[in-house]
Amino acid sequence: MVLGLVTALVLTGVVATTVVLTVRTSGRAVPLATPSATASSARPAPAPGTQAPVSTSPTPTPAPVTPAPGTTAPTAAPADPLPTASDLPTTPPGPDRSLRTNTLYKVDLGSVSVACDLEVRRPKPPLPDKKLQGYLTDVVGCLTKVFSAPLAARGFTLVEPKVKTYHKRVESPCGDFGQYGSPAYYCSTTRTIYWPDTVDDGREAYTFARLGYVGLVAHEFGHHLQATTGMLYGYSGEYKEASDKQGLVLSRRLELQAQCFEGVFLHVVRKDLDVSAKDRAELKSWHSYTGDEDPPDDRKPDHGTSKAQFGWLERGLDSGDFSDCNTWTASTKSVT
């Protein structure tokens, strides 16, 4: 789940300005801090009722100079040719950071296999609380290893997010989180995944799967990829202008894309983590409990149905191609 974000908006040749964006499920207030226009130097205007002074003295005309007999009048040195457009220095265009045509969709890892030497820890029995943060950080390290170079090749700089496990409650710029509500949170303001340390005690569905810890971290890391590539900023811009109904559709597109990014990761490490048909079945069983339809009338339809959640995860898992994760151009039916 992604709660809020702070994104740096960089305008070429101007300044880097922090744009503070707060996403809420109701009341879409998005305060912006933008640079003021820079005043240019201007000539002071004359006082009212007066006229600007005008020089009335004629400009003297210089007398012609006649060259001495036997000499040649000097000629002006030839002017340097003006530079053409091809001579001027150019700045290579940066990556496309929009929702629908983002440069990330050009990253295809279908033929890539990465080994992280990551031990898969099944959440049953749960890890001791004192070891949980260290293990989740190892998973994040594997995700960063998988995606850093491919994103750098496309102009994105991937910074490894932090993991913060907590007991009872924790305060963050994106809100205060407790032990109930969601098994994990991503806050782009701090680039941190927040993880309540009691949710792996069996009450959350991810604990049913061998890849439960890995999959849930990968989903939250998917939101980090959205922040890194600018898509969270684009989402927030559209969300604040949307109706309640449209906002829910946008939220589902965001969450289901993170599901697909999770699948891309599992595709790349499928050999290293020995992802099997049984793992797929467990992932499907896990998400049969996390859809917007379960339990009925108790959830807002903001994450997608169980079918959509596993379907988008499977798209990424099958192909390893980010172009298959473009939920922003997908039909509304496919993100229900």
UniProtKB/TrEMBL annotation:
Region described as Disordered: spans on this chain: 30-101, 286-336
Gene Ontology, cellular component aspect: membrane
Keyword Membrane: yes
Record localization: Membrane
Keywords assigned: Membrane, Transmembrane, Transmembrane helix
Bias (Polar residues): 324-336
Record-linked Pfam families: Zn_peptidase
Biased composition (Low complexity): 30-58, 68-89
Topology with respect to the bilayer: Single-pass membrane protein
InterPro entries per UniProt: Uncharacterised_pept_Zn_put (IPR007343)
Name of protein: Neutral zinc metallopeptidase
